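Supplementary Methods S3. Complex input for the dioxothiomolybdenum(VI) ion-bound model.
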Amino acid sequence: MIGPGDGFGAPLIGPPLPRRDGPAKVTGAARYATDEMPPGLAHGVFAESAIAAGRIRAVDAAAARAAPGVLAVLTHENAPRLAQVGQQGQAGRPGQSHMPLQDAHIFHAGQYVALVVAETIEAAEHAADLVRVEYEPDPAGPRARFEAHLDEAEVPPRIPLIGTPPVESCRGDPEAALAAAPVRLDLIYRTPVEHHVPMEQHGTVAAWDGDRVTVWDSTQHVYGVRSIVAKFLALEEEQVRVLSAFTGGAFGSKGSSWPHITFAAVAAREVGRPVRIWLGRRQGFVGAGHRSPTLQRMRVGAGRDGRLQALLHEAVGHSSPYDAFSDATAVVSRMLYACPAIRTGHRIVRVNVNTPTAMRAPGEAQGSYALECAMDELAAELGLDPLELRLRNYTERDEDEGGKPYSSKALRECYRQGAERFGWARRPLAPRTQRDGRWRVGQGMATAVYPGKQSPASARVTLLPDGRAEMATATQEIGTGGSTALAMVAAAALGLPLDRLRFAYGDTRLPRAPVSAGSQSTASVGSAIRLAAEAALRRLAALSGGAPNPTAWAEQVANHGPVSGEATYEPPDKDARTHAPHAFGAQFCEVRVAEDSGEVRVARWTGAFGCGRIVNARTAHSQLLGGIVWGIGMALLEETHLDARLGRFMNRNLAEYLVAVNADVPVIDAFFLPDADEAVNPIGAKNVGEIGICGAAAAIANAVFHATGRRIRDLPITPERMLLGTGDAAAHAPSSA
Ligand code: MOS
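Predicted complex, serialized as structure tokens:
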């Protein structure tokens, strides 16, 4: 279809342009959802349940209602009844199916038990503290730790993520192949609950005009929010307009609609004034999902040459009492390496938490951790170099898609160039051989892979008589620089300088665009934009009775007035496509471990990636850096503690929920290889948003093993675990699979 030098005119690795929304953001001019202050704005604050399981026996809201500035207090006794909307799931579905304030059931700690609406935030917060609730706790206490109930693990009906991969897979006879394999490993890996903690916290403003409501929301999906608000309120979708000019980070937590969004509209209708609900950091830990913890059993069978003969990857996670959410944790093991016998599966255990949700590389982050650590353990078992082991299991075909060729695969080159830039060849094979004063030093590597997800997307491109152009699609700018990259796609397709393009997005009045998630936006929406630009040029050519002339259309347009083209890009589904699209990468890192304190420092990083066409080298590079920084956090820091007796998330703040900060991050050498993908879509772009975290935590854990000779299989690798050995899962019994 296309490649370098075709009519599209974009290079394989585009120029490193600064983001167009940068100045507005750094000067404070950018208006985020909760910056909207329609006249008469009132503020909503939720009161939270103190128990994690049971019932509300009685609510006394009299003091709250009498407090100064209070306009309304909604509880399950008086809140309007919402329509039933069904299971949570992928984009366009609610983040959780259970809506609070509808009945007396309490399913998780922090569940909303009252919504106070008041003149000011302070008045609403104060009154929310005055709501008195009497509970009837479940005598059995809450279920908090899913590992305590593995006997009740169930197979979820589906994996509710983009592409909905099958829950289970089997190729060959994995059990027999494992039993016959000369080398066998049986390992347990664990990852904890994590939270997204986006810099811009969750918040919504809703304002009614007659029977129509406008919702400003911090979201990854304006059309999804529109659909959910309309369903819960039993409105026509056209009665709901959703706007999102900017979203300050999301990472999956804003990919679906959570209860506060609908309740902003409910409250605004109740008090007859616009209402703003802003969850804040603490409430964001219970109000907008989290990453499910995982227990992963990896069984690996191989020949003495390191070639895989059997791979069994079984993942268990937790979900809420009311939704069967599962990450796609084991899916990575289906396709990354050549292997004749593979079984993968997912199970969930219901506990008293809010429904977990997608979080950056939802499943791939946890699953690639287990798979890539297991590969390292296999290499160590065989005395093989970990990179050599990957090369021996390299595959040119996607065995999970019946042996289809990849749309492109630059992984071999990622290994080669990454290893060279990192200096992998100088790494001693044996662990625990390098030291620098009190620091043990080691190097680890891992493969990164992320599927090339795409969804239908529409766009409109209008050529204007003054030589400028306007593009419109409802996609969201979630902080990635995606809106800049998409404008660059239009500029390339139109042969127009970037500063002559206006881009309208983040509004349900614009052509439909999918959720900005799954690393799919540039590929999906960019393809729609290219098609729309070409449609506009074709229309102009027809009007002018001549051939399209993308370099000199301004004069032609002047004769006709604005000329529009609209297009929808429909990616082929998995069965119909002829090629398997995936982005690939190779992660290399060096760690230093102080054995007296248990401290692990990441000292060096090289990541080489092949992700198809890179539209904007600068913003795409930032995505790699962000993903790798998350990998460092995942490996060493991030963990939400769920109290086993109370069922509460205990560290609902950034003082105790630790994310990687500058002092934790070395200079990261991350780069893209030219990766011509002529099969994936009309612009040849795959995905860059999530691949950076894939394999990153494994590379660190593998480097820690290389530095110290010790395997810590439970994340995060904290000083406590380094010192005390807890989490060294060799001694754990396998799951009851
Ligand atoms: Mo992402 S977790 O697909 O927003």
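The pocket of dioxothiomolybdenum(VI) ion is lined by residues 220, 250-252, 255, 358-360, 362, 517-518 (CB under 6 Å). Residues 1-5, 728-737 have pLDDT under 50 and may be disordered.
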